[in-house]
Amino acid sequence: MDNALVAARGRTRAATPVGFEVASRLLARADVWIDGPRPWDIQIHHPDTLARILKYGSLGLGESYVEGWWDCAQLDALVARVLAAKLDESVAQPGFLWSVLRARLLNLQSTTRAWQVGRAHYDLGNDLYQRMLDPMLAYSCGYWASATNLEQAQRDKLDLICRKLGLARGMRLLDIGCGFGSLMRHAAEHYGVHCLGLTISAQQLALGTELAGSLPVRFELIDYRDFNRDGTQKFDRIASVGMFEHVGPKNYRDYFELVNRSLVRDGLFLLHTIGRGKVGTGVDPWIEKYIFPNAVLPSMSDIARACEGRFVIEDWHNFGADYDRTLMAWHARFEAAWPELQQRYDERFHRLWRYYLLCCAGAFRARANQLWQIVLSPEGVPGGWRFRNGAGALNSAA
Prior knowledge:
This protein folds into 2 domains: 3-92, no CATH class; 111-377, Vaccinia Virus protein VP39 (Rossmann fold, 3-Layer(aba) Sandwich). By secondary structure, it is of the alpha/beta class. It has helices at residues 3-15, 20-28, 49-66, 75-84, 94-105, 116-122, 126-132, 150-165, 182-191, 202-212, 252-262, 285-290, 300-307, 321-341, 347-365, and strands at 43-44, 70-71, 172-176, 194-199, 217-221, 235-241, 263-276, 312-318, 369-377. It has 15 helices and 9 strands. The longest helix has 21 residues, at 321-341. The N and C termini lie far apart (63 Å). It has a 7-stranded mixed sheet with strand order 5-4-3-6-7-9-8, sandwiched between helices. A two-stranded antiparallel sheet has the order 1-2. Helix content is 45%, strand content 14%.
């Protein structure tokens, strides 16, 4: 064992915080040391930190960090090691079990509750997102197959979606959960597509409309269940990028019914969503409580069951490892902008947002979370769906 580690461990033992022996044995499985010198080691500031984490799991870990009870120079690396070693399965998770039960038994995303995440997260402030995101304001995983920076990764992701959908001039595209309209602006500018986006964020609608300018892009502030109820509006293509995490298991069939009634029979639908590898694992309780109210991550079987009788799954693409790089890029931009952002947001928000970004980066690095792009068709593409290749080359509609 490194001499520095021995010395650090000795100093911590002298303090003997509550839960030290149990926590140190668990953390050793992930090669993490309490008050160790390495950047992924946890630095304890409050004597009750370890007991709180052991008792409350993810909630205790996140809440104690935000309150300044502990620090870590590379929080993302710590979380990745903890999850890769499956330490989360070895501590109490009362908040996790409760969140799973709530998601399965209650409709947390009812038509009245669905607007909560818009107000609590997406309406936090456009100034925050403009400084954290790329110039297109794409708030979802970038595609890093050949990208070297965030702007290129997001541009490549947008074009990847357009090519998977086979967009062509004159088509109509519906974007369910359109954010600031990055996909719609890209599709309109480079493929000559007319776009309609659905959102539950008033601030995203306002800024997105301004950014769209004269492009054939329109936004509508509406819950997806209230849109096109009579099925009279038809779209050649439908996309939904980073929104399905807010739908919830009680509403999966309603969601796919909306897509089904709004898509022409020879059309295509692309679903871009974070997912979990196991049924019933829901979402991290700290993330659900403080970042994305009522969020639930779907499993593969959740999606497959909801599609049955409505769609043929043409393609299922997982590039979840790319979310690690995306989140780290967002974190770098957020920290660089903090001197300006702190004029509006306090230090507690600084620690909360940092924990959110880095904790999620660690989860994707450990492959605990996945990122799926799924291409679906109502009746199956005759002869089979084929990906339109040519990564990095935009098809200009000009």
